[in-house]
Amino acid sequence: MYKLRKEDLSVYRYFRDIVLKDFNEYQEKDELIFNNDRSTSSLAVYSISTLNTPYPFEHGRGIVYFDDLENTCLVNTTTISGTPEQSNRVYIYDENLTLLDENLYRVDYVDGNILIDPSIVPKYIDYYWHYISLVDEWSNLSAASAPVVVLDIAGTIKTGYQLGGGKKIIRKGNIYIFASSSSERSDLTELIYDNMYLKNCPLYDFERGSVLDFDGTFFNRKNNYDKTTNLFSRNTISGTSNLRFEEVEARNINLPLTMSRRNESATLSDLNAFRSRISFDLVSYTQG
């Protein structure tokens, strides 16, 4: 994984884990429905049935997979240091409302599925989910309803900063905010701006890949059921500084809902009704 991708993922983690955490929503006693298409003889899959709006499992949302990081100590073992999978963001119950042991199942945090032994029948779920859809690809913007926050790293400038091989790396970036109302746009813009102005975030090495596996479950959870040792590594890249936000500037983007060109007109999507942009430089220093 190249450094640019690690920077992109590190900024994504900063926004998801820290900046937008107060927008996580709590849902109680949604029903779990047996998913016959995805289940096998050795693994039963149950999907969450919910009436929440926006839909919790649109692109960029999903179930919260870390506990509150400000109140959770990082774990150190002999092989890795990092953050364990959540222990108080998901609760599964049977039909008698008896709480199931968290080691009996795995959570697909992306699509809202519970993977469990076929001999066990879960019925209800309490869970926290991401109200803000956070994406880092423009192509996926239309896959979710507002509010949506798009992280876009658009360009790179590299210059020397010391004798030898040291480099100053500047990434030109933008945060695009698509809200459901003017007040929500103002809140999101101010929150994100305040968490970027004169701030920085860690540059993680991502030695084991990202947090989730290909099936939406916590990385390596299928092989290691011990949450205290199966950790997301928060080791930073040796010889490289943290990522610092500089030249942060925010402005609203006010577009007419109907745009005309010659004799033709087009109606913009609801996503463009309450929109803003935060431009920034993402700066780091490396020794090599």
Write the layout of secondary structure elements.
Layout lengths: L2 H17 L4 E11 L9 E6 L25 E2 L4 E4 L5 E4 L11 E4 L4 E4 L7 E7 L2 E3 L12 E13 L6 E13 L2 H13 L5 E2 L29 E3 L9 E11 L4 E4 L2 E4 L6 E13 L2
Parallel strand pairs: 9-10
Antiparallel strand pairs: 1-2, 1-8, 2-7, 3-4, 4-13, 5-8, 6-7, 10-11, 11-17, 12-14, 14-17, 15-16
Taking the alpha carbons of the first and last residues, their distance comes to 17 Å
Let me know the average pLDDT.
Answer: 88
Count the domains: 2
CATH superfamily of the largest domain: Phage tail protein-like
Write a structural description:
With 288 residues, this protein is mostly beta strands. It folds into two domains: 1-20 and 132-203 and 240-288, Phage tail protein-like (STM4215-like, 2-Layer Sandwich), CATH 3.30.2000; 24-131, Immunoglobulin-like, CATH 2.60.40. Helices cover 10% and strands 38% of the residues. The chain is built from two helices and 17 strands. A six-stranded antiparallel β-sheet has the order 5-8-1-2-7-6, with no helix packed on it. The chain has a six-stranded mixed β-sheet with strand order 9-10-11-17-14-12. It has a three-stranded antiparallel β-sheet with strand order 3-4-13, with no helix packed on it. The protein is globular, with a radius of gyration of 21 Å. The mean pLDDT is 88.
